[in-house]
Amino acid sequence: MGALETRTRTRRRAVPWAVLALWIGLLAAVAPFAAKLADVQHDRVTDYLPASADSTRVARIQDRLPGGETTELVLVYHRDGGLTAADRARAGEQLARIAGRHTLTATPRGVTSADGTTLMYPVASNEPGTDEDARNALVDDVREVARGGDGLSVQVGGPGALATDAAGVYASLGGPLLYTTVAVVALLLILIYRSPVLWLLPLVVAGVADFLSTGVAYGLHQVFGTAVSGQNSGVMTILVFGAGTDYALLLVSRYREELRRHERPYDAMLAALRGCGPAVLASCATVAAGLLCLLAADLNSSRGMGPLGTVGVLCALAAMLTLLPALLVLLGRRVFWPLVPAHGSTPRARRSLFAAMGTSAGRRPLAVLAGGAALLGALALGALNLPGGLKQTDTFVDRPESVAAVQTLARAFPERSSQPITVITPAGRADATLDAVRAVRGVDSAGPGRTGDGWTEISVIARGTPQSAAETRTIEDLRHALPGSYVGGPSAQQLDLVDTDARDRLVVVPLVLASVLLILVLLLRSLVAPLMLVAAVVAVWGAALGIGGLVFGPLFGFGGTDPGLGLLSFVFLVALGVDYGIFLMHRMREESARGAQPSAAALTALRTTGGVIASAGLVLAATFAVLTDMGLVQLVELGFVIAVGVLLDTFLVRTYLVTSASVALGRKVWWPGPLSRTPAPARTERQPEPV
Q: Phi and psi (nearest 5°) for 421?
């Protein structure tokens, strides 16, 4: 017996050290690849466009034409009182310097506005090709040369300048996003744990998981060609810290509870993993399944976010269920100092906020359920006030020079576009296509461009200003009149984004609902409880979008809504929101299996998991709220809607609506499982520790 006990103790000491050694080896193995992720991150147009749209085909064919991808700029010279001869001479001198420093596709020709206040010079170069750094260097150099003064303003705009300004925002995401996320999570963990040491462990483990995810993401890119963009890699970091910290909070809470029942930390951790492991695994599975449904999207940016987001949550799960337990066991009970849970002790009795909230929900469950549903429905009506589609010039929170140039041109040239529409046609039909283009209503001018690889490029100027209703009609008319040709360019790209997002919603949303529902059915062995949880998160999504509609335009001053907001916020809120339902319902099922009556099981589950769910919800909402401090409107909108939705889900839906619905349904909530038919045999109840 003594030898067996000795071997058991040796194993208990060896397992955590072995886990720690495995993680050190794993991190050493992925380190060379993690450092390379930034090198394969691209924010080119084709990384975001719909995969099968005309505008995507145009962009890809342009890459194969002589000179490769074209960087198109517009130099805008403006003086309020009218341009002078000296202004025109300065513009000519600057254009000559630019032509001398860079290879341009054609000699720039100026166009003067009718009121004489603005002079526009379109400038195009194939010099950078598809190299984003080279494109940014070209734009920066042109801006260095093109300078105003003495009342003359000079602005550099056009698609190339807009892309460079957007790339600058995405480049700033990496460092500030990571540091801000870490700071926010650290602050919340300190407040939650009230311990000088404990808060550091989940944070360090989340950082390890984030490092691992970057290496795995690089591997995905190398093996499968998964697109890595600034938006996708930023969201991956948010998911690692947000979801990972949620898993840590649930595990640590259960571990502290088990330390009061088990003398050795190793045994307590095994019990904690057995108790909360299924809920954490199911939680991760719902998020991963929901994100992988994005692979069915036709939008490149959405489809790339699926595997990267999945990598993030899986790395977070692996770290929180292996590395974090090993560190907690090695450090022992003292890691909880000064609130150390002693073996055999009883948690100090105190009034639980969630017990009081659960009791209030349990007294009149139907009234609470009806009132909460009415509130969510009223908030969802705010979605009718969401601003229209987000124009390219409205994508920046702070107006950069490229946007200012577009706005100046729109005022000076209301009768024509300053942004060309590109038509790609088979080279053998180039002349006939050019004649057909010029015959289309709304076309101001058109001219042939490069020819190569069996295709010819035609540049079209519409009479309508960029992304106006008139220009949109011209693009649609061109596509209708030119079968066998492709119509692209910045405005066509925005049009395709809207159309493709509508298609993706019809495909992805049912897939997300079906996959999440299936996982919940397998975990809870019920149909009613999963349907209740899914209905709750869908209602939260609608209410969060409605709140966005109430603030985006009137309060934030946003001129539009990103086309992908509805789909991405749905995927994240449904997949992440169900997490908290899993935590609550899994504990409720445990209590029911021990023989507790339905109402008692529901209230006990809320009392024991309410604090964890609230803490996890605050952390997750705070991590996504970090996106609201970024410089792109689409990131601000996405972060705001998800953060608001998580808070609604945490403090209204889980606390009141799911609890009251469970009390009202009684054992029917577990239908058609065995718990719905006969009372479970009474077992000796252990007193759970309120959190």
A: -95, 135
The 3-state secondary structure of 536-570, one letter per residue: HHHHHHHHHHHHHHHHCCCCCCCCCECCCHHHHHH
Where does the pLDDT of residue 159 fall: very low under 50, low under 70, confident under 90, or very high at 90 and above? confident
- Amino acid at position 430, single letter: A
395, 554 contact by CB (below 8 A)? no
Cα 690 from chain centroid (whole Å): 33
User: Cα(85)–Cα(328) distance, rounded to whole angstroms?
Assistant: 76
Tell me how crowded residue 685 is: count the other CB atoms within 10 A of its CB. Answer: 12
CA separation, residue 300 to residues 303, 475, 563 (Å):
5, 22, 13
Residues 6+ apart with CB under 8 A from 51: 298, 299, 300, 303
The segment with the largest mean pLDDT, out of 240-254, 309-323, 410-424, 462-476, is 309-323
For 260-363, where are the alpha helices, taking DSSP H only? 265-292, 300-318, 324-331, 353-363
pLDDT tens per residue, range 131-151: 888 888 999 999 999 988 889
Backbone angles phi, psi at 76, to 5 degrees: -120, 115
Q: What is the mean pLDDT of residues 95-117?
A: 90
User: Which three-class secondary structure state does DSSP give residue 345?
Assistant: coil
Both tokens of 662, joined, read 């469970």
Q: How far is Cα of residue 622 from the mean position of the Cα atoms in its chain?
A: 14
- 97 vs 23: CA distance, rounded Å: 56
Q: What is the chain's length?
A: 691
Q: Is the pLDDT of residue 679 over 70?
A: no
Contacts of 95 (CB under 8 A, 6+ apart): 75, 108, 121, 123
Cα(331)–Cα(507) distance, integer angstroms: 48
3-state secondary structure of 632: strand
CA distance 249 to 383: 33
Is the backbone peptide bond immediately before 690 cis, with ω within 30 degrees of 0? no
State the DSSP H helix or E strand holding residue 61, giving kind and residue range, or none if neither. helix 54-64
Report strand pairing: 153-157 vs 71-78.
antiparallel
Give the integer Cα–Cα distance in Å for 18 and 654.
39
Question: What interhelical angle do 132-145 and 85-101 show, nearest 10?
Answer: 150
The residue behind tokens 């502290």 is 256
DSSP run (H or E) holding 402: helix 401-412
pTM for this predicted structure? 0.83
208-212 average pLDDT score: 94
Give Cβ neighbours of residue 60 (< 8 Å, ≥ 6 apart): 46
Distance of CA 577 to the CA centre of its chain: 15
* Residues 105/179, Cβ–Cβ less than 8 Å: no
CB within 8 A of 614, min separation 6: which ones?
354, 650, 651
The tokens of 406 are what?
A: 């577009």
Exposed e or buried b for every residue in 291-317, given b needs 16+ CB within 10 A? Answer: bbbbbebbbbbbbbbbbbbbbbbbbbb
DSSP structure class, residue 487: E
CA dist., res. 633 & res. 560, Å (int): 9
Cα distances from 171 to residues 26, 299, 497, in angstroms, run 28, 22, 23
Cβ(297)–Cβ(570) below 8 Å: no
Beta bridge partners of 458: 423, 448
Burial 390-425 (b: 16+ CB within 10 A, else e): bbbbbbbbeebbbbbbbebbbebbeebbbbbbbbbb
